Amino acid sequence: MIATIRKSELNGIVEICPSKSYEQRAWAMSTLPRMEISINGTGSSSDACASKRIADKIKNTHRPDNVFDCGESALCARMFPPIIALHTDNFTIDGHGSLMNRNIRTDLEFYEKNFGWEISGNGLPIDIGNAKITPGHFQIDGSRTSQVTTGLMLALSAFNDNSTIRVVNPSSTGYILMTAAMANDAGAKINVLQNSNTLEIKINGNDSYLKTELNVEGDWSNAAFVIAAGMRTDDIKISGLKSESLQPDRAIIEALYLCNAKFEWANDNLIIHKSDIQGFEFDASNYPDLIPPLCAIALHANSKSKIFGTNRLIGKESNRLEAIVTELGKLGANITCTDNCLTIQPCTKITSSTVDSHNDHRIAMMLAILGLSSDAIVLNGCECVNKSYPNFFDTLKQLGANITIAP
Description:
The protein is an alpha/beta fold. The protein contains 13 helices and 22 strands. It has helices at residues 20-29, 46-59, 74-84, 104-107, 109-115, 147-156, 173-185, 220-230, 252-258, 291-299, 320-330, 361-371, 392-398, and strands spanning 2-6, 12-15, 36-40, 67-69, 91-94, 118-120, 126-129, 137-141, 163-168, 190-194, 198-203, 211-215, 236-239, 262-266, 269-273, 281-283, 305-308, 335-338, 341-344, 353-356, 377-380, 402-406.
């Protein structure tokens, strides 16, 4: 599908979409033995729907097969295998779209080495046999992703015996902390100790969980794009965000301080005011999903900005780093990448152009936000926003954006 976005002034109030990261973890927790959990405030993103589909299949003892479709969600493919292994020792992980190009096989080698899993196939579908999970003491390299640790931590929390996980060179630590807090709210007993370059995770044996409800929070990752739009126009009020959320991408608030943005909290709403944006420096190593909206903000700053941690972008839905440099270049941006850092010069005029989403929801949303400051941007492949924010374009239209969508 093709979106045409034209210069617009935005104003109004919107309720942000549910957090897919929070919801996906909630669905995984719902499958743990002895867990009694109800999940409220769910969304319709394709990643969240994939998690629910997998959870429903795990709980269905009469399932016709053991093929678990992860859609395009790398979190599903990395998090669910040890949880599925609590229920069956022979299954297949499959998916489609951008997930087919991601190196899930390498991430699952931890289970091959530590539990003796028999894993066949270099890419999806991946067949897994002898899939046993037992309590113990483990060390894992966390430099590529935190999502393998997330799944292992949840699976081990279901046992009566204690376990420990030592994560060396952890990345996206905030997601591990968020997962532990969610599990503890449901009766798990997980303690995470942060050191300079390791995480020490202690999982106490647990013979029962609490009967609990989880209310899915608003999504800070996607709110960052609406925030970026609000800084260039009239006041935008965003409801549904938890101000003290453990979602890592709440760190967008830190960036707002750095770039001199004007914002406030009022009656649990985040209000973004039109701002004179200053150049800024921000380390996004633990918040790679914030880099696209930060790029949109940086282009409208009054001086050079630097965003660090860009190496984390290469293995996303697209080569997100390459996509950012390529597509922003089409819009007239002066942007360079060296030594794990994007350097972005202010762009006085967003050039009208035809751009491509690279089938990456965050690239699509970044380009759409910039289109609001152009005469016209034509965005190919805009439907990929369904992965995390199906109502993204409707939200912008609700605020007054001039957007047309065509097949």
